[in-house]
Each structure stands twice: as C-alpha cells, then as structure tokens.
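Sequence in, structure out.
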Amino acid sequence: MVDLFSPFTLKDVTLRNRIVMSPMTMYRAVDGHVSDYHVMLMGSRAAGGFSLVFPEQIAILPDGRTGSCCAGIWDDKHIEGLSRIAAIIKSMGAVPAIQLGHTGRKGSEKKPWDGKTQLPPDHPDGWQVRAPSPLPYGGRYPYPVQELSTEDIRDLHEAYAAAAKRALEAGFEWLEMHFAHGYLGASFFSPLANQRQDAYGGNLANRLRFHREAMDAVRAVWPERLPLTMRLGADDFSPKGVQFEDAIWAVGELRQHGLDLADISLGINTDDMVDPPFDREGFMVERASRIRREIGIPVGVSWNLGVPQTADRVIREGSADLIFLGRPALANPHWPVWAARELKHADPFSLIPEDWAWWLRSRKGSRGSEGWPAIKE
C-alpha cells in the first residue's frame, strides 16, 4: 500500500517520499537576491528528509514581490544565488523545486512583524500595484490599483517564460506557478477581483485565459520531462467569488495545457470569507480528493496537515499524492524523520543522508540520549 514514505514519480522526476516543504516567504532577500540564509534553510530541510523542497515564492518581476525584501528571478544576476539553493537541495537527496509568482494587488507590503500593511506607491520601499481590474483588495491593502492592459498581460506571460528559463539554468527540476492566495493569477480567476469586459474577464473561460496563456508560455520553454504544476486558488469561501466547482473545471482545462499536478489551495481574494476554515485539520483534503478523482490528475494539498497520522492517512486513502507542509517544516527541520518514528517506520533514518544515518543507527548510546523524543506507544 502507498503511504507517506512511498516514492512518487512524475515525468522523469522521482521523489523519495510524499513530503514537500511548501514555499514560505522569509523576507530576507536584497534586491531579489537570495543569501546564505536561504541556502541554510532549504539545505537543512532537504537533509531532514523532505523529498521536494521549495524556497519562497520567487517573483517574476520587481512589482511581483510581496515586499521589497522578497526573492526574485527577473534578472540573470539572480541565477547564481538560486543555483546554490538548487545544488544544496539536490546534494542532500531531495529534488529542488521553484514556485514562480506575482503578487498583483497584494504586493508592496511591510514585513508581517512590522504590520503587514501595504505601502503607498510613493514610499521608498513601495510601488504601484497592478491587477486585472482597478479594485483595491481592501483592509490592509487600500491603495489604488492599476488595471493591466492587454499589452501588460503579454509582457507578464513573457516574464513567466523568461523566469522559467532562468529557473532551469539554476538547476531546478520542478516548476510551480503560484495562482492562489489573492495574488495575480488568483485575482484573474475570481470575479471578486476581475471585472474586465474583454477577453480576460467576464465568463469563467475568459477568467482562466490568463492561466492558460501563462502556462503555454512556460510549457514552451520548460522541458517536457520535468514537472510543471500550479498552486490554484480553488475556493474563495465567498458566494461572490470562486466556487469549488469552477476549480474542478479549471484543472481539467489546464491539464490540456500541460499541467502535470494540481496543488490545491485557497483563493483568498477577500478577507470577507463565509465560515473561514483555517482552524480545521486538513480542510482542503476533500476538495483535492475530488479533483484527483474527477479529473484524473495527481494532486498536492496543504493546510493543517502537520500531524503525521493525518498526513499518512491522506496518502493511504488516495485523497492526494503529495503533502505540502509550511509551518511544520519551519518548526522541525527533521519533520519527516520524526513522522517516520511516530508511524513506526522500519528505518526512519533512511530518510536522511547516509553519513548522518550511519551515526544515528550505529551509536545509540543510553536510552533517550540520541536527542529524539521517546516514540509514542
């Protein structure tokens, strides 16, 4: 039976297990450049047993960042730093993945611990945000939004393709497009943010046009042998926004444009959600399972899956193919090994590099002295 620790193959890439370190913005980049911090963070999680490791969302353009201290890939000069991340991940036995994105009307932010409010366009660390329609998100994002022209949209698709080329040169072997969480792609899909009257707005097919064309642009330069995936905003939890039935249809359409796996997440195109589910364990699992079952495409799922027994059950029941972990990956760099011990895996240390595994298997010491909590019976 397939479980959390079973290998997973997609195209020419095989993951050693089903546990993914999800992209998380760290706010430590300078002019889009990553640093030793990012190499440390991603390398330690790869060494800790995660099979697929993402750095944070990487912006395709300067105005696609969350804030001025977020990473980018709009310039060839960014390749060197990103290649160090890809190399350390691969050397630790994991697969290096990259998530390309543009924050749209939710960009130009302060750091979360400084308030996470939007900076005005004339602030030294701010910029004019852009989106499909001139509608501010509201709340923490009050500033005017510039509506994208059709020429701007074409330029964005070219930027996605250029970023994909740089990602390939940097050594990444898995590419995900971030079209969720109220960012640019998500806002094109949602009627809460997209009120255009041209070919990119109105009916559902038009609202998905941005996704299809962006994917076509990336698929044209990204090797067919390597996975191309998308994090899709599958539900706005608002009667006026994206409904989950819309997302099922959208994944089927995107599969025809080269989508290899759907990473199912939230739309978050409004803070005014009905019965928001954020405190519920695995609340996106059933939605992911439906897409996997009805569209016949592999799926990844995240949100509140840090309990090993829950994550393992999702895989065993066939509800999803991959488990994306965010906060658990930050809290415990060896979460996969801990989970393997909790789930009575025959050889938990097989998940980490052999030199580390040798010491941990061969020099047990006195009871409890290895530095691991006692296994629950």
